[in-house]
């Protein structure tokens, strides 16, 4: 295959119908098993140019979960602030910034 100089290669996001909607069942086959089409792969790249960010992010999250306790944020009166997850749509869907309390495990 010949790729001309200056060409831009991108992920084929339009292969999924209604790509901007959160439809996780599109990655489950008729038997209830996960398909080979792993959407998480496109986040850190594909093939030889894949980023090490996947492993680095996993390590950072595991280290935080092992050493920190999380609890809901509280207002000035000490009452728990209610939380409703809100997601930002895009090529990668992510959670809108949320306040939490992180405290060191002893």
TrEMBL record:
Gene3D superfamilies: Cytochrome P450. GO terms for molecular function: heme binding; iron ion binding; monooxygenase activity; oxidoreductase activity, acting on paired donors, with incorporation or reduction of molecular oxygen. This is Uncharacterized protein. SUPFAM superfamilies: Cytochrome P450. The lineage of its organism: Eukaryota, Fungi, Dikarya, Basidiomycota, Agaricomycotina.
């Amino acid at each position: 295959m010949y790729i001309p100089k200056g060409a831009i290669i991108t992920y084929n996001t339009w292969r999924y119908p209604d790509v901007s909607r959160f439809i996780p069942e599109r990655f489950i086959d008729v038997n209830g098993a996960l398909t080979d089409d792993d959407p998480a792969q496109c986040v850190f790249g594909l093939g030889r140019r894949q980023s090490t960010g996947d492993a680095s992010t996993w390590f950072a999250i595991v280290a935080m979960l092992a050493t920190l306790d999380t609890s809901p944020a509280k207002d000035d009166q000490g009452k728990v602030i209610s939380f409703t997850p809100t997601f930002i749509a895009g090529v990668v869907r992510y959670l809108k910034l949320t306040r939490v309390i992180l405290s060191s495990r002893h």
